Amino acid sequence: MVWALIGRLASQGIVDLFYFPLWWYSGGILYWGKKCLGLLTLGNQALSPGLWFKNLFVPMYGQRDWQGRLISFGMRLVQGVVRGIVLAIWAALCMGIFLVWLALPIICLLGIYQAASSPLFSLK
Predict the structure, then answer these.
(1) Which of 61, 78, 93, 101 falls 20 to 30 Å from 117 in CA-CA distance?
(2) Does residue 122 lie in a domain region?
(3) What is the pTM of this model?
(4) How large is the C-alpha radius of gyration of the chain?
């Protein structure tokens, strides 16, 4: 009974070891791509620069004189530009996280190769 369990765990571990790269670059890409797009959507909902540009010519607080319209236009323009820049930085961070996630197995394999080929690891 115990040996059957140990054999089953060992065989499942070997299968998982070989299935891991396939999952990382197929189902894992889809999973983390959706997560990164979700983060980008949350950033867009929180910052919403499009809403500031959509209401660019609408006077704030109902002040319809030229001073109120000028202040409203300037304020919304600055807010839209700054929020757009922050959203672009957020999008770059989301893309960077996704690219690091893609490159992580390759970086790990290179690190293992470098550690295995170092003089400290040799058995001479």
Answers:
(1) 101
(2) no
(3) 0.80
(4) 26
